[in-house]
Amino acid sequence: MYIGDVSSRGLHHLVYEVVDNSIDEAVAGYCTSIKVEIGTDNSITVTDNGRGIPTDLHPTQKKSALEVVMTMLHAGGKFDHSSYKVSGGLHGVGVSVVNALSEWCWVEVCRNGEVFRQEYKKGQAQAKVKKIGTRKQSGTKTCFLPDNTIFNDVNFKFGTIVARMRELAFLNSGLKITLIDHRKEGKQQEFLYKGGLSSFVEYINENKAALFRKPIYFRKEKDGVDVEVAIQYNDSYNENLFSYVNNINTIEGGTHLTGFRTALTRTINNYLIKNNLLKNGKGGKGKNGKNGKNRISVIGDDSREGLAAIISVKVPDPQFEGQTKTKLGNSEVRGIVESITNEYLSNHFEENPRDAKKIAEKIISAARSREAARK
User: Which residue from 264, 273, 275 is spatially nearest to 241, judged by alpha carbons?
Assistant: First the structure.
């Protein structure tokens, strides 16, 4: 079962898999708008203004590329990088699995000025792909009704989909995502964030007092891995750290998160040592000095108290633990993230002493409180 389960979680994953195809187009620079609609019959329609799924003859399957993508596992360009440098979705099987788990499904593609359509029942094409008209605007429109003989509950929750669409809009700055619920309540939400990850962190800190106004933001590519990070501390005691790989929420973390945490703690410790801020009490050498027994010891938990941060990486060949993409396993990513984070944060602390001082005071206070509670 590629989507994980047949509960509400698995049901909503169907929506995300179709949307992921549109997100791939956005990441590649071809899509600026995605619309998701919940029908009165609990069907889902996803429309984008990307290039449109290819409809010409597949070189090996001898049928339309659209039909291959919709009915066969591991189809399309996600496996040889011919279409996308990086890709989300369930290892490229997403749309065909959604189709297989649906009572019915149809797709309309506008590509090169022509509109094509194909219909399916329980994953099987009902007829060949046929041209139904012309249109200047390119894109793909996919509509499906989940199979109620497979899923325990086929009622989509507006709030659940809203949370994921908001997340995707934050992760892809400048992309407009609209969600419309045509059922009784008639809800609608639109998301567009030009600030990207910085806006995401500000949203997390919306009801908290941030230690500095502008989030720390950096982005850099190294050895084919794109690393993007936004950080802003607040006056709370909680850590809010979210990690993503190719727009997928890695809720169990992985090597990218480990690399970030390691670099954060090390960089902060280096700053505290360099500025002689680790002394406890009145200071001075010996007992309370650099080598004194009362020297404050800062650990990872201290450096993350009050931290709101987003780490988003784009990895060409991600290795995940489990089909649902919850933990990244690529060992090389840890060093890349660690190196970039250490480099940028070190420079930021040097160039922005006021921000650095506020972070240092927060972390030293956390360390003192922890040590006092232990006594």
Answer: 264
The CATH number of domain 8-191 is 3.40.190.10: no
Q: What is the DSSP letter of 82?
A: S
Picking from 58-67, 205-214, 302-311, which range would have the lowest pLDDT averaged per residue? 58-67
Other CB atoms within 10 Å distance of the CB of residue 175: 24
Q: Highest mean pLDDT: which of 210-224, 295-309, 317-331? A: 210-224
- Span 6-31, mean pLDDT? 92
- CA dihedral (326, 327, 329, 333) positive or negative: positive
- CA distances from residue 286 to 273, 279, 294, 371 in whole angstroms, order as listed: 16, 10, 9, 20
Domain ranges of the chain: 8-191, 197-374
Is the pLDDT at 35 greater than 60? The verdict is yes
Q: Which of 331, 304, 305, 299 is nearest to 318 (CA)?
A: 331
Question: In this structure, which topology does domain 197-374 adopt according to CATH?
Answer: Ribosomal Protein S5; domain 2 (3.30.230)
Give the CA distances from residue 21 to residues 167, 183, 285, in Å, rounded to whole numbers and listed in that order.
Answer: 16, 25, 61
pLDDT tens-digit series, residues 215-274: 999 999 999 999 999 999 999 999 999 999 999 899 899 999 999 999 999 999 999 999
Tell the burial category of 329 from Cβ atoms under 10 Å away from its Cβ (0-12, 13-18, 19+).
exposed
Alpha-carbon span 210 to 192, nearest angstrom:
23
Contact yes or no for 197/312 (Cβ under 8 A): yes
Residue 353: in which H helix or E strand, if any?
helix 353-374
Tokens of 270: 């280096």
